Amino acid sequence: MNIERPKIGLMIPTYNAGNQFSKVLARIASQNTVDLRKIIIDSQSVDNTVTVAKKYGFEIYSIDRSQFTHGLVRERATEILRDCDLVFFMTQDAYLHQDALKNMLSFIERHPQMMVAYGRQVVDVPGENYFDKKDREFNYPKKSLVKSQKDIAHLGIKTVFSSDTFSVYRQKYLRRVGGFPGNVKFAEDMYMAAQAIKSNYEVGYCATAIVTHTNGLNYRQQFKRYYNIGKFHAENRWIERNYGSNEKNGIALVLTQTKDLLKSNRFSKIPELYFRSFIKYCGYQFGKL
Question: Mean pLDDT across the chain, nearest whole number?
Answer without folding.
Answer: 93
